[in-house]
Task: structure prediction
Amino acid sequence: MPRLGAHMSIAGGLPRAVERGRATGCDALQIFTKSASQWRARPLPAEEIATFRARAEEFDIHPIAAHASYLINLAAPDPTLRDRSIAALTDELDRADALGLLGVVLHPGSYTTGTEADGLRLVTEAIDAIFSTRVAGTKLLLEHTAGQGTNLGHRFEHLATIIDGASARDRLGVCLDTCHLLAAGYDIALEQGYADTFDAFESLIGLDRLHLLHLNDSKFACGSRRDRHDHIGRGWVGLKTFARLLGDPRLAGLPMVLETPKDNRQNPAATTPDPADLRNLQALRDLMG
Ligand SMILES: [Zn+2]
Ligand SMILES: [Zn+2]
Result:
């Protein structure tokens, strides 16, 4: 059975995210290990790391993945922004290592004023620069994207080019997002489209590279290339698709986390579950029977 969970806020400290996961009934989890919209990160105190790890163990919540900051752009043509991105991603990997996480989920990047081919080459070079000095530790999970604007990673071919070109192939994995798949034009809402999508993934990348799934419905139709997550069963992905995915024996051992909209803004002091998370998790568990 897949291990289900959700993205949880770290408001009030990292251990709070695990406590929120527990209160919400999560088996697996995703977090930001720092503010996702800022470059700066406060150092993680040893005591906070220890409490986080102890809670995760006590509540049997695993694996836990980190999602990298949205500011990081390894494909940026501007060398200053690219260097800053490499430094920030290195810090994210350090944090994930300290916390014992499954991996750091990263959007490959945007080529902005450059070209797609240059963007893919810059991402591969940045990954090589980062992993040349990191012999062991957490994985980098490249997330397949919806393909908004000049975002890379919306074709499986992009991810394959990055992975095949990198020296540190054994440190790279992939995260698939159901909203992004549909938005990018992989029509998983149809039975044949679902089969074709996973056949293409298997032949271009390999299912052994898939380490995490984001379960989100999509506010926009197949091929829209718009990244707008919706509640499970309320969008264009649909309940049938989630049922197919949850029952797919090839994906049975994988963690699957929600990144669906929340009802409430998280109170740093509270660990009360968000009603929207409870509804979306229940919708998935109902499909699992
Ligand atoms: Zn993402
Ligand atoms: Zn996602």
Observations:
- The domain at 3-288 is CATH 3.20.20.150 (TIM Barrel).
- The first helix runs from residue 14 to 24.
- The chain has one domain: 3-288.
